[in-house]
């Protein structure tokens, strides 16, 4: 990536990075992961991982990218030439590729729901949202077609570049999403029986927490912050040398935690009020939200608006994933961006077709009881992202000079020494040990 390619402002970077972090990870995946993970206890563990492990890792990726001003693979090459460490950047590119292959399927679901909302099909008498969702995702033509359309727009924006494409889109999408979320929460909390959902979400019962749920909470934290895939290495390489990394990281983590919290408050009160199960799975959001909106004045209109913003959130994350692939494959040659964006996007689409068909014609194709969609999700969230995070936690404090780390972390803040001491302790000792312990516990070794 050319060194002249930069965000126009810190706000542009924060909104783009937050858009990457928030996206479907916080809005779509967090509610059903919390529901299947036991509610409040899962949320507490998720918060601990996000603040004490995720944020130090986020800063580590920022430092790698901003210090080199290069995309993921080239950054590691510049820092430790002639070693195997550039494969950490390639692991990140592969992770983004796999994530986008099944993530775009969910983006297609949103498009299909948006069409049904606009046409009025969602509100026809006798419609049960659970049945409607099951029928929709089982239709191979609709799901694959919608996935293709979703990726076409992602390709278009990424092909336009960082400033004119990604940054400009995020400046409008993210603030609008927050405003509508607030309105949705107000309505959800006023439903009969809503308090039971609040208790489930915010009152932890650690007796229900399993070692597998802890692994899922760690994976969800990394998925939500987009750490472990070197996404933020590439995004921070576009950041000015004058900007504070610690302030940017704090803003992104705060926004991610806030939107996850808002998603829980919007979903779980409605789940319990409507008598649904919080363990519904990936379709939870598509079943609960129409039920909530159908009970409020002008609900049809508000739901269409929410779906549009939900689509925006999905797109902001998809932009970052395709950008990492394109940045690595172009190797800084801007004249190749458009062609590479088209080629990479179409390749992602082809690889993602089995995931799109996992709820219909390929629903019987399973491995260890998981569909292709579930395998891709599990591999990324619980293996590839934690592995990438572990390697970044090893690489940054052990392979980069302490002077570079301290300099990058001290820019733009009056508490540079304090920040550096705390961060260095967590990234060198706490983060890698915690990740290894979680893995060993899940595998039964300890």
From TrEMBL:
| Membrane-topology descriptor | Multi-pass membrane protein
Q: Where in the cell is it found?
A: Membrane
Q: Which GO terms describe its cellular component?
A: membrane
Q: Membrane-spanning regions, if any? A: 7-28, 40-60, 91-115, 144-162, 174-195, 215-240, 252-276, 301-328, 340-359, 379-398, 419-440
Under CDD domains, the record lists: SLC6sbd_Tyt1-Like
Q: Which UniProt keywords apply?
A: Membrane, Transmembrane, Transmembrane helix, Transport
The record ties this protein, via InterPro entries, to:
Na/ntran_symport, SNS_sf, YocR/YhdH-like
Query: In terms of one coarse class, where is the protein primarily found?
Result: membrane
Q: Which PROSITE patterns match?
A: NA_NEUROTRAN_SYMP_3
Q: What is this protein called?
A: Neurotransmitter:Na+ symporter, NSS family
From which source organism is this entry? Aneurinibacillus thermoaerophilus
């Amino acid at each position: 990536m050319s060194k002249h390619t930069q965000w126009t402002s810190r706000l542009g970077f924060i909104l783009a990075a937050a858009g990457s972090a928030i996206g479907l990870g916080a809005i779509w995946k967090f509610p059903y992961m919390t529901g299947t993970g036991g509610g409040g206890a899962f949320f507490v563990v998720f918060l601990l991982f996000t603040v004490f492990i995720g944020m130090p890792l986020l800063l580590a990726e920022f430092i790698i990218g901003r210090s080199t001003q290069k995309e993921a693979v080239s950054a590691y090459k510049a820092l430790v030439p002639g070693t195997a460490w550039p494969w950490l950047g390639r692991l990140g590119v592969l992770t983004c590729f796999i994530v986008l292959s099944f993530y775009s399927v969910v983006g297609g679901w949103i498009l299909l729901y948006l069409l049904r909302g606009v046409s009025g099909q969602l509100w026809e008498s006798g419609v049960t949202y659970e049945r409607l969702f099951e029928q929709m995702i089982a239709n191979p033509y609709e799901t694959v077609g919608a996935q293709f359309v979703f990726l076409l727009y992602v390709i278009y924006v990424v092909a336009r570049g960082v400033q004119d494409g990604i940054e400009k889109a995020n400046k409008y999408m993210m603030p609008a999403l927050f405003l509508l979320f607030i309105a949705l929460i107000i309505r959800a909390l006023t439903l009969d029986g809503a308090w039971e959902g609040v208790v489930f979400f915010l009152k932890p019962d650690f007796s229900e927490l399993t070692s597998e749920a802890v692994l899922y909470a760690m994976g969800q934290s990394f998925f939500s912050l987009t750490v472990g895939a070197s996404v933020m290495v590439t995004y921070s390489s576009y950041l000015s040398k004058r900007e504070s990394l610690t302030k940017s990281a704090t803003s992104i983590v705060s926004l991610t935690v806030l939107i996850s919290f808002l998603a829980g408050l919007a979903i779980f009160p409605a789940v319990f009020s409507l008598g649904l199960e919080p363990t519904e799975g990936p379709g939870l959001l598509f079943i609960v939200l129409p039920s909530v909106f159908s009970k409020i004045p002008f609900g049809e209109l508000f739901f269409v608006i929410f779906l549009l913003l939900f689509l925006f959130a999905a797109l902001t994350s998809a932009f970052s994933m395709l950008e990492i692939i394109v940045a690595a494959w172009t190797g800084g040659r801007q004249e190749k961006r458009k062609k590479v964006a088209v080629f990479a996007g179409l390749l992602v689409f082809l690889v993602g077709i089995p995931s799109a068909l996992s709820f219909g014609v390929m629903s019987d194709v399973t491995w260890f009881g998981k569909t292709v969609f579930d395998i891709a999700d599990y591999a990324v969230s619980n293996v590839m992202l934690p592995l990438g995070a572990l390697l970044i936690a090893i690489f940054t404090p052990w392979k980069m000079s302490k002077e570079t780390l301290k300099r990058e972390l001290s820019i733009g803040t009056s508490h540079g020494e304090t920040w550096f001491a705390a961060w260095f302790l967590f990234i060198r000792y706490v983060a890698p040990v915690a990740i290894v312990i979680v893995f060993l516990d899940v595998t039964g070794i300890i």
